[in-house]
Amino acid sequence: MSTKRIVTAVEVKADPSEVYRMFTESSALREWLADAALSSSRPGGRIVLGWNDGYLTAGQFTALKAPEEVSFTWRGTEEPDVTKVKVSLQPTEAGTLVKVRHSGFGDGKKSKATARAMETAWNRSLENLASVLESGEDLRFTRRPMLGVFVDAEARDADGAPMGVKLGGTVDGMGAAAAGLAGGDIINSLGGRQVRTFTDLGTAASAHRAGDVVEVGYLRDGVADNVQMKLSGREIGEVEMTAAGLAGKVGAMCHRFAEVLAATLEGVTDEEANRRPAEGEWSVKEILAHLIDNEGDLHAQMVATIEGVEPYYDGGFGNSHWRTKVTADSYPDVASMVDSYRHLMAQTVGMISSTPAEAGKRRASFWRVSFPYNEGDSHFDEHVDQIKAAIAAARA
Questions:
Q1: What's the Cα-to-Cα distance from 141 to each of 128, 185, 378, rounded to whole Å?
Q2: Each residue of 231-252: pLDDT tens digit?
Q3: How would you classify residue 294: left for phi > 0, otherwise alpha for psi between -120 and 50, otherwise beta?
Q4: Which 8-state DSSP code applies to residue 373?
Q5: How far is CA 106 from CA 63, 75, 85, 226, in A?
Q6: Structural domains of the chain, with CATH
Q7: What is the pTM of this model?
Q8: With helix as H, strand as E and coil as C, how does 152-205 read?
Q9: CA torsion 352→356→361→366, rounded to 10°?
Q10: What is the pLDDT of residue 318?
């Protein structure tokens, strides 16, 4: 085996003990490096890291010297070599110098390609490590690229096999529109990756960051073409990073939610609230059930994140219509559902305001708790519009 290695480094404004934790605890590894992580931090213990694009690596810890060194083996998906990662943590005046040595790549063509990809990945990941430790900001979210498209359907060939993603339209001022893509076009590749399904499109985009320029292959009226497209970014508001500040922000949101719900549901009968606008669409009670379930899920996620016991994360989360119906059926009327939602919102504020001081200092964890509330209003408002439409349909 070759001793070929790559070396990457970054200085972070954090104590070596905190950086050491970020390389050894499952929940901490998910805060900056991988989408899924299982870590048993002892010599010979496992370390399994997975990403939503399907890449997976499994290895064992070979050396753990807190807070100076973390070493483990690495064998990635379809990679030809078992390689070694050594992380050295050296105290500095500003915090910690983090140096990653990834060695053991072979001399073959595939091994060299793996080494190049690993160097890019480690540079990007260490940049994110510094970000989450210093400000809490997870660059995987804030620099996530957006195409600026409305997706219509998965296009299929004559045999019924998926052949790309058909666009319903594009968003003015964003990458797809600027590149000349339009409704009806079928995207079949992005950044050199084949696109056959919705999942393929998301996976291809996730390999890049906002601002990257990628080649997009597409079909228009059966004719193949390609175009260079600059991936757009999302607007991220300032994330509140103190428990008192976040509690005040969320408390104001909850107060507005309660007032809006009271006004929207005034005079609605239980018969109207139980009626679905159409097959497969939620009734008023089911929409309220979704809000209740979602608030409970936020509580569970908050506990898991703050206490560092998050069980897993593998993406692709969606609504459970079975759970929504059961929740809706368990309440006798709309009034009791609204009372329950108000209680859960009050509990949310209480949990935030009483965040343990030590946990509040872990900026990466607190940022993950706070970030969803930057978009909390839009989620609620969408469902209020849905409630209004359901009421109108019930009264038609």
A1: 10, 27, 18
A2: 998 777 789 999 999 999 999 9
A3: alpha
A4: G
A5: 23, 13, 15, 35
A6: 4-137 (3.30.530.20), 149-230 (2.30.42.10), 243-395 (1.20.120.450)
A7: 0.76
A8: EEEEECCCCCEEEEEEEEECCCCHHHHHCCCCCCEEEEECCEECCCHHHHHHHH
A9: -30
A10: 60
